[in-house]
Amino acid sequence: MGAFVKSTTGKNEALRAQAILLTNRRGGGALVPSLTGLTRSHAINLKQRYCTEGIVCLTDKRKGKPKELLGKKQREAVLKTVKEKTPKDFGYVHNHWTSSLLGDWILQKYKVQYKSRTSLYLIFKKASFTYHRPGTVYKERDETEVAAWRRMATRKLRNLLKDKDAVILAGDEMVLTTATTTQKVWLPVGEYPKIEVATGGRKRRSVYGFLNLRTGTEHAWKTEYQNMYITKEVLLKLRALYPKKKIALFWDNAGWHKGSVTQEFVKADGNIAIVWLPRYAPEENPQENVWKAGRSAVTHNEYIADIDHATDALVHFFNETTFLYSFLGKSRIS
Hints:
Layout: H1 2-7, H2 11-23, H3 32-36, H4 40-53, H5 72-84, H6 99-110, H7 118-126, H8 143-162, E1 166-177, E2 204-212, E3 218-223, H9 228-241, E4 246-251, H10 255-258, H11 260-269, E5 272-276, H12 287-299, H13 307-320
Parallel strand pairs: 1-4, 4-5
Antiparallel strand pairs: 1-2, 2-3
Helix pairs in contact: 2-4, 9-11, 12-13
């Protein structure tokens, strides 16, 4: 497999092979999306196919370019439209292009209909567009406040990095319930998965997590819920891991973080510096990516019959996996 990665001239072929290699490493599955651009489920599917089909499953099936249905001038006009116009300019209700909207516009404009979306994807690629799932944003979010925070936090991070004895952490909490969550998986044609769904009242557990931004090590603990008393107990456990170190903690503005019991502990400790994250901007916290990786690897598509068993498995995954996420524009904190 390693020889194939070195010898292949196809970028997509190399990424598929790397995804399989990562799934063979302990905790490597969580790194598949960030290192290869493929989903973890896709990588697992590739690995299964590789075991039965061999290296042929990694090679690109499509050779050459798809047949061009539009003339050169028409293609140039389409690219110009995609770059400079939005669907609303042509009477559609949406602000952003999708392959379906572009295909419909081309059909109306040039009476050409593509049988496959591949040609539409190529148009977006030539226009330097990338595919994104729309994210959500809080109505109360203040972009000016977030930008100012980034400038301030970047300066603080730069100073912290100069202190080799400082432990730099990003902290957060998540709630796991017995509600079944799902994600897309690859299956043979004709097979349709069904996941059991719990009925009745939901049980829940909380997880406190702290990501060491220098090492990628995660420290996670299961709790019944979240309040300032439990937060103090968790900080005691965190301090036990770094008994002599200065702890710099990037944390959000949750009430149990700013509660009197929590703040009294921080003050009494005397060697914990908290950098408050901006309001309504969870994407600034790399710990959020840890939660997503854990849910994808452990709890998605699973019927949770025992909330404690499921939470313990999730915490085990967190504490046994290395998470190397970017923070404030730095791809690796070291």
